[in-house]
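Problem: given the chain below (192 residues), write out its structure.
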Amino acid sequence: MSAFMVVIVVAVVAGAGFLAWNQARTHRLRRQFGPEYDRAVDQHGNRREAERDLHAREQHHHDLAIRPLDPGSRTRYLDQWTHIQAEFVDSPEVSVDLADKLVIAVMGERGYPTENYEARVTELSVEHARTLGHYRSGHEISTSGEASTEDLRQAMVHYRTLVEDLLSAPWDERVPAPSPAGVPTPRDAGPN
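Solution.
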């Protein structure tokens, strides 16, 4: 075999290896980030930049001291969530505001940065991408300033999904809460 043929074979093998590695990386990022992957592609305008951003999120997240909640904290937050849901009937706006604050408190105790909404979304995207859309929707409704009671009920449903995810309660251990004015409890809604 001539040297030229060896160079061509090496180039073809290297190209195939790079293509396989690139496809594996894309597949892994799509699986990990779910809908957030597509959102990043839309935001950046191309797959390469989106994947660079998602990889940077992974790197930053790896440097954080994220920890699970101890059982006492988990129980305390579940009790707070139950109280927030029960208060919805009398004070929907206040309940939605408290739901947002509860998310921030849980995130803080688990070791996530909580300084601003965008930072929270970015950090949550690494481990909670499947429920991140709920947080975005709940936050959008809660900050709109013109939400109807039905909109606020939807915000509570969205927040509940993220709260459950952050508390990392196995599905069969989740405690159903009273259903304020039609807000379905976890057992009513079924697994996400």
